[in-house]
Write a structure and sequence with these properties.
Layout lengths: L50 E2 L2 E2 L2 H15 L7 E5 L6 H12 L5 E5 L10 H11 L1 E25 L6 E11 L4 E6 L3 H7 L6 E6 L5 E7 L13 E2 L7 E11 H9 L8 H5 L12 H16 L3 E5 L1 E5 L6 H12 L5 E6 L3 E3 L6 E3 L4 H5 L1 E5 L5 H14 L3 E2 L1 H13 L2 H17 L4 E2 L1 H10 L3 H25 L9 H8 L9
Parallel strand pairs: 3-14, 3-17, 4-13, 9-10, 13-14, 18-19
Antiparallel strand pairs: 1-2, 5-6, 5-8, 5-11, 5-12, 6-7, 8-9, 15-16
Helix pairs in contact: 1-2, 3-8, 5-7, 10-11, 10-12, 11-12, 11-13, 12-13
Bound molecules: adenosine-5'-diphosphate (ADP) and magnesium ion.
Organism: Pristionchus fissidentatus
Keywords: ATP-binding, Helicase, Hydrolase, Nucleotide-binding, Nucleus, Transcription, Transcription regulation
Subcellular location: Nucleus
């Protein structure tokens, strides 16, 4: 213990070791879409700009997506579903990710691929339920007792380590300054980790929660704004009031974050505010229905008390024709529940079988679900759109191209697919590099397109080989004992079946 002039924040509560608040949000699949920064709409008219935020063409789909964004922001979309339907490589995934960017990081967005539901360890419905809850946000507003100010002193107090060699940290001394005054605090050493992680140093504005001892860096004090030219840093003014005060703290979490915190064995259950401060590294714990309904009832009561607000986000299910009837039925029911995000599906299938049934249906989805969808079509690109997209992708992947090479690539794209030519960029660059060049020429592109063929050519090659093999076999079997005609029938049926499951053109 140091002298009496030091304050202990709320001396009757032992400071707990609070790791950084960690969200369980999934990392997005953005690598192929890094050039897309939004939907590229006019800020007032909401009309699609011919070229905006990395997007070219596909105007009507982008405008429709913009309308969805507006509806979500006005909270008119919960429990509804959208389907992006169009041939492969027409920007469906890119549009969905752009929707996420337009919504901002306060609205949860959970991307998944339909085939994720097929796991041998977890039930399909469990995967869907978890992702559903990742897509529902809760904004919690709390009045908290805090110490806030600019750090003027930060000293770990060392003592000789009683159990071994070297020194141990006994406590951390922090002085905080505001316009009105300053205060020196002596804090538990467990806080030091979090201080180091957030790289807190003198001159930063921080606050420390009195109850939990959680430390949060707000930003750099703007007195230091001219000192360095750090664009990444956020400068904040010196707080006006006293160091010790009540502050409204707003936290955005998802229901899944709360489920995870609640499923952890330690800690008191049943209080959102204490759960929020318990969010730690996600651990593998089973979240049961009982635990989920526990969270639901706590959330309900917080909402009715006006402390928390539900923020329905977006669950994006890519390649949704991979879902089966069981998954669709479950989703349909979940969409009806009072806690429901907006579900955005994407598919490139026209009419195909609903998985798990023998029924054919549009996009391989059950009719009752199709009925409640808003469907946004995307269309194949023409050469000039492909040209612009390939150009921007080349910049994003740092591939320098000769104009002729770019033109040739877009020609190839117009005859195959956008996806294919985007994939050719890096091989073309490697070929150029092998020849000791920095810039990709038309020859490099040609060579790359010979090394790596597109799906149509590949299917052609396979079909040709298949036919040759069959012809050979037939020739052999006619020489041997003639086979009965019935045995040949299933072969024909099997060959005809996949045709129905081909992507849209
Ligand atoms: N209109 C567009 N403007 C810019 N880039 C696009 C556009 N459409 C597609 N892309 C890019 O082309 C590639 C293929 O598009 P993607 O969204 O994956 O197609 P889909 O999901 O429809 O199969 C991605 O890298 C995507 O970012
Ligand atoms: Mg896609």
């Amino acid at each position: 213990m140091l002298g009496g002039e030091l304050d202990m924040p709320n001396s009757n509560t032992r400071l707990v070791n609070i790791d950084e608040v960690q969200s369980t949000a999934r990392s997005q699949r953005v690598a192929a879409h890094s050039h897309v920064k939004g939907l590229g709409l006019h800020p007032e008219t909401r009309a699609a700009l011919p070229k905006g935020a990395g997007f070219f063409g596909q105007e009507s789909a982008r405008e429709a997506a913009g309308a969805i964004v507006d509806l979500i922001k006005q909270k008119h979309m919960a429990g509804r579903a959208v389907l992006l339907a169009g041939p492969p490589g027409t920007g469906k995934t890119a549009i969905a990710l752009a929707i996420a960017q337009e919504l901002g990081d306060k609205v949860p967005f959970c991307p998944m691929v339909a085939s994720e539901v097929y796991s041998s360890e977890v039930k399909k419905t469990e995967v869907l339920m978890e992702n559903f809850r990742r897509a529902i946000g809760l904004r919690v507003r709390e009045k908290k007792e805090v110490f806030e100010g600019e750090v003027t002193e930060l000293t770990p107090m060392e003592i000789d380590n009683p159990t071994g060699y070297g020194k141990a940290i006994d406590s951390v001394r922090i002085s905080l300054k505001t316009m009105k005054g300053s205060k020196q605090l002596k804090l538990d050493p467990s806080i030091y980790d979090s201080i180091l992680k957030q790289r807190i140093e003198t001159g930063d504005i921080i606050y420390i929660e009195a109850n939990s001892g959680a430390v949060k860096r707000v930003g750099r004090c703007d007195n230091f704004a001219s000192e360095f030219d750090l664009e990444a840093d956020e400068f904040v003014p010196l707080p006006k009031g006293e160091v010790h005060k009540t502050k409204e703290v707003v936290q955005d979490v998802t229901l899944h974050d709360l489920d995870v915190a609640n499923a952890r064995p330690q800690g008191t259950r049943g209080d959102v505010t204490s759960l929020v401060s318990q969010l730690m590294k996600p651990k593998k714990t089973e979240i049961t229905d009982r635990l989920r309904s526990e969270i639901n009832s706590v959330v309900d009561s917080h909402i009715s008390q006006g402390i928390a607000e539900l923020v329905p986000g977006v669950l994006f299910i890519d390649e949704c024709h991979m879902l089966d009837i069981e998954a669709f039925t479950y989703l349909h029911r979940a969409l009806e529940s009072s806690y429901s995000p907006i579900v955005i599906f994407a598919t490139n299938r026209g009419v195909c079988k609903i998985r798990g049934t023998d029924e054919m249906s549009a996009h391989g989805m059950p009719n009752d679900l199709l009925d409640r969808l808003l469907i946004i079509p995307t269309h194949k690109y023409d050469k000039s759109a492909i040209f612009s997209i390939v150009k921007v992708r080349a910049e994003a992947e740092q591939v320098k191209m000769e104009a002729e090479a770019l033109d040739h690539l877009s020609d190839i794209g117009a005859n195959s697919s956008l996806r294919y030519v985007v994939q050719l960029l890096t091989p073309s660059k490697l070929i150029a590099q092998m020849c000791g060049r920095e810039t990709v020429t038309k020859q490099d592109v040609e060579e790359a397109s010979l090394l790596f063929i597109d799906a149509k050519r590949s299917a052609g090659v396979s079909a040709k080989e298949e036919a040759e093999k069959k012809a050979k076999e037939e020739a052999r079997s006619t020489r041997a004992v003639p086979r009965p005609a019935a045995a040949a029938a299933p072969v024909i049926a099997a060959a005809a079946a996949p045709a129905a499951d081909e992507p849209m053109e």
